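Students often ask why we bother encoding 3D structure as a string. The short answer is that it lets us treat folding as translation between two languages. Here is a chain of 359 residues written in the first language.
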Amino acid sequence: MDIGDGKGAAIQHWLVRQRMGSKNNSKRAVITGITGQDGSYLAELLLAEGYLVHGIVRRSSRTVRPRLDHLTCDDSVYRQRLFLHYADLEDLTTLRRLLVDIQPHEVYHLAGQSHVGVSFEIPESTCDFTAMGTLRLLEVMRDLRPSPRFLHTSSSEIFGHPTVVPQHEETPHVPITPYGAAKSFATNMVRIYREAFELFACNAICFNHESPRRGESFVTRKITQSAARIKLGLQTELPLGNIDAQRDWGYAPDYVRGFFALLQADAPTDCVFATGTLHRVRDWLEIAFGHLDLDWTEYVVFDSRFQRKADPARLVGDAGKARRLLGWQPEKSFEAMVVEMVEHDMAVQRELVRSLPGR
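And here it is in the second language, the structure alphabet:
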């Protein structure tokens, strides 16, 4: 069951490690989506807290997992305190078997098709993975004894075109994208299972959050990476859609701290995690390119392919409940986050240049 070992040896090794975990009173946590931005930061946090961490990896997932390399290459961590298991959210039998075997104290459900634009191209799989995948996990939670604490990462996309600004936990859902609709379903199912079956089930309603580990298909990372490549002469222009689109952007590690805090609360509930401040895409351009002494207006070109079919308006969060209940607040500023991402991408692109033939 542990990726990378022979089946029999892996099961035996895993059972030994589990018994050791029981003896030293280590808590066990399961993370779906562990190879993603949030999952990798959460794995680091939980390991630092002394947890045994079990990550669920899709069978179709790449074997190269750069966000986890520093952990899986560490022999004192991988297969000692960090374990990876193959399972798909569509495969209820395997999920149930894994969770029954692991008997986790906490389950963090971060997996999902999270690219809003792509959800228009693959609405059925987005809804099956994001909506029904959450329901399947809740069904397993319902049967486990004792039942673990469960966290689902929801999204500001559930609010769509909100009637209230800023948005909070009680703001009505008006999704305008397939992804938003799928997340709204999942968010409501978590609440229903909490109330109907008395599960310790929580929704972390996250507004946009970024980091150097953000996927390259997202506009934020696309901007910081392109700025670095243009600075190094590897790229000449940056095609974008609506640069006046606004979002409430925060720093991913700050939000992951919130996930952990939410599952340590005395009672299950939902919390919004947000900065409460709107920024435009052009703000990313000004800071990222300006940090490299470049004028973004000389390189950015409009491309209608990147124009959203439906673009939410005035999505800005009220994290007052998280501040009051959890003592949570974002720590890294918007500008510092953008600069960190630019510096990361400069380092990556410089290494790429050094690896080119003749360099």
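Translate back mentally: Residues 4-9, 16-23 have pLDDT under 50 and may be disordered. Keep this in mind for the problem set.
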